[in-house]
């Protein structure tokens, strides 16, 4: 027998004294063993001396084992990432990765474009929604608020399904539904239809949680940062593009064109995504690879193939999948802390930009001019994006030089944020006291807006990068909490934003209102430094993140710890194969999944249970 198939004494499970009922059950299983081939019997007889024969799932009783065997997976080998790494998204050529990401960039822009363009339909050359349905401007803003609020929940609901069903079908379904719900808004016979259409459109939006999850499909945590920076720019930039385009639409076209343009853009994006973007979700690709190999005569199965369809999508499984991102948001200190930081930051900025129409009318800006006044924020986003390039290079070098330093691997990703986050209160303070109108030039407030843009991009980029690194293949659920906070808080604060800037204080009401926001921002920035210095403590208190970290660094490959091995993608893929099973158990999904700690070594198995030589992972998923 080859040496790899032998069992060392320290792998042997301790003998357990069977109860009378267990003896009877074992007798029944032993009878089933008579159907095993002669070769298997000889192999068991040649096992290492002293090796005890035990069940493949020794930590569970016989009844549980039989329940697991009902799935029919005990004689099927499950493919692992390291066995097909060259065929997964991680091994796509660079040009293909960036082509896919460029399309995703446009998809993300379209999603955020939808959140902001509606505001230009409130009024216009034909009176807009206000005149069409006889409602006040404040009431018409409900359409913007409800979209953002339901968008927040849409991100959470769609994200886990992209991990179960694949990124492509989920994004296609999302884009299709969003486009469909534009129709009742544009053709609405009454204002109630507008609100319902906007609510359903927001709920149908998958958002950045899915698009950012695709980064974890194609890039290892060690080199994902350029991709994260790119997609984050599309997210924040799309929100600014809306009012820029909307200014021209509001000044020249009927209000419905704000909706038709969203539909035209969304239809183009859906077709582009369908044609140009393949599936990238690792588990879905592994299923396809396994099917292809079975046609060649190999007995190998994908991770999702080993569970019957109705078991994967039972009522309990659906509930578990939907609850996952909310559970992570509430129980993971990392997700909760960073999401609230990012969410309050975005909400403050959203209130801040609601003041633009009020502020710039003091200088006689037209509708088109007010739309263009959002460009300084976009300039700030560009500056922040480019500033992250050397910061990322520095961070990658630090992580390479200190492979065993957890702070270097995780918290160092927040380093540049220590310098850019203060731009949020600084920009708001400057804007507050330069937004009071002439004789102060309007360009002063525009510069302040650019400074605020630097902070908004930096906070979103750094927190997302940190969370994707910490949560790996389940980053879509983790970042869903971040997106939920940003959209929900922005939506909630949409309605009070205009009264806030018009009713606080007297002659200097604009200055006082922005000063209040700047003071709140100062408190938020202090939290950035706490997270940077206390990050290791937060991660230790995050059971889910800790499990993933242990799977990356403590899995045994040929007797060596991954954290001590040279950095290579095969080690990372093996760790993910192990962590994926542990994640399912931790999150309550597919609890009948077990990872075999002695991944490279064959084990003796009990009667009636076939062994799987050289399997890197034993599972009944």
Characterization of the model:
By secondary structure, this protein is an all-alpha fold. It has a single domain (85-545), classed as MFS general substrate transporter like domains (Growth Hormone, Chain: A, Up-down Bundle), CATH 1.20.1250.20. 67% of the residues lie in helices and 1% in strands. It has helices spanning 20-32, 38-45, 62-69, 94-117, 128-133, 137-140, 142-165, 167-180, 182-186, 191-203, 208-218, 225-252, 257-276, 282-295, 309-312, 315-331, 333-354, 356-360, 367-372, 375-401, 406-409, 417-420, 423-434, 442-471, 475-492, 494-503, 509-540, 543-554, 569-586; strands spanning 77-78, 300-301, 556-557, 560-561. Strands 1-2 form a two-stranded parallel sheet. A two-stranded antiparallel sheet has the order 3-4. A hairpin with a 2-residue loop joins β3 (556-557) and β4 (560-561). α4 (94-117) packs antiparallel against α11 (208-218) and α17 (333-354) crosses α26 (494-503). It is globular, with a radius of gyration of 28 Å. The model is unreliable at 1-16, 24-72 and 556-621 (pLDDT under 50).
Query: From the alpha-carbon coordinates, what is the Rg to the nearest angstrom?
Result: 28 Å
**Estimated share of beta-strand residues:** under 5%
What would you give as the CATH superfamily? MFS general substrate transporter like domains
Portion in helices: 55-70%
CATH architecture grouping: Up-down Bundle
CATH class category: Mainly Alpha
Number of domains: 1
Overall shape: globular
Strand order of the largest sheet: 1-2
* Number of DSSP E strands: 4
Helix count?
29
